Amino acid sequence: MNAPLKPVADTAPTFDEVILGRRSIRGFRREPVPKALIKEILELAMRAPSSMNTQPWNFYVVAGGALDRIRAGNTERNLAGVPHSREFRTGQAFAGPHRERQIGVAKQLFSAMGIAREDTAARQDWVLRGFRQFDAPVCVIVTYDKVLADSDDTAFDCGAVATALVNAAWSRGLGAVINSQGIMQSPVVREHAGIADDQVIMKSIALGWPDETFPANAVVSERKSVDEATVFVGFDD
Ligand SMILES: Cc1cc2nc3c(=O)[nH]c(=O)nc-3n(C[C@H](O)[C@H](O)[C@H](O)COP(=O)(O)O)c2cc1C
Predict the structure, then answer these.
(1) Which of 34, 58, 83, 137 is 20 to 30 Å from 183 at the Cα level?
(2) What is the best residue among 178, 217, 222, 223 to mutate for testing ligand 1's pocket, by most ligand atoms within 8 Å of CB?
């Protein structure tokens, strides 16, 4: 049995401060992140609910030379035009409101970074940055037990734990960005992170101390309204 988690003292930000303050961080300071702090964050994140409490998730926390080898392998293969080999399904290309939102956040990020629409070299640099895990000192590879691969609950549960993880990180002053870019060349990640054969790679999360001077870190992405997203049924007012 795990010991119950004790909330940190008075310095802890409130729930609202974490939820409203968190944003994806794509520029990091060089300092390493202590392993004990990462464990603390994982312990918080793993309080996430899961289907029948199956907890299908596992984590490979990669830093140092192993992470550098993943960055190099990802960059090399992407520049060489090696087709992506993700281990998760992607649907059809975004259209309509989904495409608009995708473009919306890209515009916000490019504008913050001063990357012009026609500047293909700068845009390519930005994409490569993602393949390098945004040069973060740590990358958390989220995997799940292969035996549960056929259930959509598995992806749902991995999303729950990943969201809890980025919020837990934020509550400790760390920044993170959940991303698919870091695991698009899954053989590279498998080799250098030593992913076990009974695990499927779901996502990566770049993690580290936010670089406050990195312009894209200030971007607050937009959200559709509660009214757009929600149908209330059976209410009097
Ligand atoms: C499943 C998933 C995949 C993502 N993949 C990427 C990615 O490959 N590159 C990236 O820069 N951001 C990625 N993101 C971050 C999203 O762009 C970001 O969460 C979204 O724009 C909302 O912004 P916020 O996190 O700052 O609130 C991903 C997020 C999720 C949840």
Answers:
(1) 34
(2) 178
pLDDT digits (tens, 9 = 90+) for 135-166: 999 999 999 999 999 999 999 999 999 999 99
- Using the predicted structure, report yes or no on whether residue 7 has a pLDDT greater than 70: no
Mutate-to-test residue for ligand 1 from 179, 184, 222, highest number of ligand atoms within 8 A of CB: 179
Instruction: List 179's β-bridge partners, or say none.
Output: 204
Tokens at residue 210, please? 């936010």
Tokens 């509660």 found at: 226
181 lines ligand 1 (CB under 6 A): yes
Question: pTM higher than 0.70, yes or no?
Answer: yes
CA distance 119 to 112: 14
